[in-house]
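Please fill in the sequence for the structure shown.

STRUCTURE ENCODING:
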């Protein structure tokens, strides 16, 4: 029987299916500077709570992603170096817009400071650990954002009845998450180019399992907290959120195959080229396009 190391557990560090003609474009859009309904997701609390909980993590989370990627940019090939710069600019804009969105949520009476505090405490635990592990965590979380972004763009049902301005923000964010979904992964391949394929595969797979457990545990608790602030508790809150995530529109159920693909030997985010989703919505943002450089 062949030894496991004979399998293509990860592609060569300097190759991969990232499209050679990929252009990462910075779209300098602004949203939610005025008002939105309290229950902006179709007037119901469960989608509102889930997305408010997600948004509350983004300002600190995306700052962490930026630093994790920048820490390993030395010696990157020119194309990857340019993609890192564009990635950073996109993430800075995402942070700005989610800060604005989070402020509106607070203006409606939601206390999201506990979520921000939890993220701060978790990120403090990463200080002093090897930077390559921060990159591995970033790579796993970027896969989560890319999976959800694909689903939000491919399935209009997710935001069909949402407040139009909030819907536009999430779709804009999703377009850019799809566009830069391979950057952290390519930086990982660059940073671990001296590792064996088996070691790269083991570390990224283990990190995805750790990230998955924490992601769903924390987002569930955060959403329950926000639902309680809406007066919804107990079985009604748990069943309503579970149904939203797994039945209709069922984002967690729908992204499961893409999550499972992460563990495939030789996986790369651009194994599935979904740039058609970017093109589908690009015209709406044309006036805000900025050069990536």
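FILLED IN BY: designer on duty
SEQUENCE:
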């Amino acid at each position: 029987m062949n030894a496991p190391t004979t399998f293509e557990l990860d592609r060569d560090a300097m190759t991969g299916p990232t499209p050679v003609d990929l252009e990462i474009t910075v779209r300098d859009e602004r949203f939610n500077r005025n008002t939105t309904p309290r229950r902006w997701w179709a007037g119901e609390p469960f989608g509102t709570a889930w997305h408010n909980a997600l948004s509350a993590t983004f300002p600190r989370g995306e700052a962490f992603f930026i630093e994790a990627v920048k820490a390993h940019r030395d010696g990157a090939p020119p194309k990857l170096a340019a993609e890192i710069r564009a990635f950073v600019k996109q993430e800075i804009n995402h942070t700005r817009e989610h800060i604005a969105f989070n402020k509106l949520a607070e203006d409606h009476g939601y206390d999201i400071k506990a979520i921000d505090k939890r993220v701060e405490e978790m990120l403090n635990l990463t200080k002093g650990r090897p930077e390559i592990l921060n990159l591995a965590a970033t790579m796993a979380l970027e896969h989560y954002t890319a999976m959800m972004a694909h689903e939000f763009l491919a399935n209009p049902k997710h935001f069909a009845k949402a407040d139009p301005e909030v819907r536009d923000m999430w779709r804009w964010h999703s377009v850019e998450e799809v566009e830069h979904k391979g950057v952290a992964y390519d930086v990982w391949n660059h940073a671990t180019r001296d590792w064996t394929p088996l070691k790269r595969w083991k570390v990224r797979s283990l990190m995805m399992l750790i990230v998955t457990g924490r992601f769903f545990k924390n987002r569930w608790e955060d959403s329950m907290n926000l639902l309680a602030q809406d007066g919804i508790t107990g079985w009604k809150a748990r069943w309503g959120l579970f149904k939203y995530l797994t039945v209709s529109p069922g984002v967690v159920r729908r992204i499961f195959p893409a999550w499972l693909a992460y563990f495939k030997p030789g996986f790369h985010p651009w194994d599935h080229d979904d740039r058609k989703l970017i093109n589908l919505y690009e015209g709406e943002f044309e006036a805000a396009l900025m050069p990536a450089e």
